Predict the 3D structure of the following.
Amino acid sequence: MTLPPLHIIVNGEDHHLMVPANRILLDLIREDLALTGTKEGCGLGKCGACTVLLDGRPVHACLLLAHQADGCRVDTIEGLADPAGTTLHPIQEAFVEKGAIQCGFCTPGMINTAKALLDENPTPTEDDIKLAIAGNLCRCTGYHKIVDAVSACACGSGKGECHG
Amino acid sequence: MRITPLEYVTADNLSQAVELLDSAGPQAAVLAGGTDLVLNLKKKRACPCILVSLQAIDGIDRICLENGMIRIGAMATHDRLARHPLLREKADILCQAAGLIGSWQIRNAGTIGGNICNASPAGDALPPLLALDAAFVTAGTVGETVISARNFFTGPGQTRLPSGHLLKEIRFPCPPANAAGCYMKLRRRKAVDISIAGVAFQAALNEEGTQVASAGIALGGVAPTPVRVPGAEDLITGRSPKEALENARAIGAACVAAASPIDDLRASADYKRTIVNVFAQRCARHVLTTLKEKGKPQ
Ligand SMILES: Cc1cc2nc3c(=O)[nH]c(=O)nc-3n(C[C@H](O)[C@H](O)[C@H](O)COP(=O)(O)OP(=O)(O)OC[C@H]3O[C@@H](n4cnc5c(N)ncnc54)[C@H](O)[C@@H]3O)c2cc1C
Ligand code: FES
Ligand code: FES
């Protein structure tokens, strides 16, 4: 049985690729598409460093076969800032401003989860934020500044635009 | 961590899926969300030659109420279950359990069907399904079978799923309005951790709102399979919630008697028994107090 080409829309761009069945989505993103913003921490679904948005919902790219994403939108951190590469997304701005980034290894996954949360709930409480990012480990910041950064992006927080 | 080369087919419909499973035999594995299976492929704990993905089958993730039965398609994800308005209203115990699974990422990919077929003794959806008297509808080339949740599990990772079949749907009688349920699980950290022990407690009043008419109590993580505890249920049914509440300690003891935990890395058998006792009593107090409120004449 021959596997049909995989069709995925990565950061808004259509890709039709011949991909072997045993290819993990994370490897496809990092190696075949050279989008190395998505990180591999544990490779076991436990750390969240590999979080991408599949049709808008956060998932672990390390635990998905590439073909499971067939026909889906895959959004990685590279697609978040404006395409010209001149302005960061408000969530990225907030992470920088609040000091929510130290080594930065968890940041792409963390920001993707935060983006999905804010898209579905523009006014999350602190508990909503903590619950949403519970699967994203950070070994540096102690989380407070991350929660601050996400809170700062909530509608009505008085900061920047509201992306709901 | 690389995966050994294998074949992959996305089934267009149920009959194609069961035909593929039938012709490939034990070499084939059903792929749902992959949160267990892809991990097992990576760790070389599973080595199927062909994966049959159910992802594209129309309607296999449907959640609905029909003729008094709640029906949940095997491919419904934990995140959908946790938030589903019908389930929140009628069978909140299942939403509670689904919402406690893994992380948001795991809940977005992992399915109830995968949780059932993986048959981990600690699978969080399992005790609530036993407590709700669920039945599993499986599909094969020669037709469907219905197996009660109570009889489905035979050991860790072992089920009565007929060979060549896939799990299609979960069904249970829709609990009445004057029912309540509670699921509690012990884990070492607040997220992304499987349960060390879990207690599911579901009960409903009679129509007059005076007595507990039915109860389902089930344990997870403390035996080779999830187990029902009829001995604890008998201490509740036929009694007013107030009377039943007086049996809280005996309910805890009956649950401990039904558990056969082992010492492992997560906790000692003794500690698991203590937790079963405490959680069973907490669940009992929570559910029976809620029922007492619901039973009050308006
Ligand atoms: C980091 C992490 C945390 C986790 N935390 C929890 C937790 O807290 N609680 C918990 O209960 N589980 C947990 N799990 C386990 C897992 O996420 C769940 O068991 C999940 O429900 C599996 O569903 P899936 O759709 O991903 O199944 P898959 O991985 O696709 O399949 C699992 C198994 O079931 C079979 N299968 C799947 N669907 C069917 C079907 N319809 N018919 C026949 N066979 C089928 C597959 O062949 C495979 O053997 C965790 C996993 C990870 C990686
Ligand atoms: S790399 Fe995927 S969860 Fe850790
Ligand atoms: S900033 Fe280093 S892991 Fe989060």
In short: Chain B has a mean pLDDT of 95. Chain B has 13 helices and 14 strands. Chain B touches chain A at residues 1-10, 31, 34-35, 38-39, 41-42, 51, 53, 55, 79, 102-106, 108-109, 190-192 (CB under 8 Å). The domain at 63-172 of chain B is CATH 3.30.465.10 (Uridine Diphospho-n-acetylenolpyruvylglucosamine Reductase; domain 3).
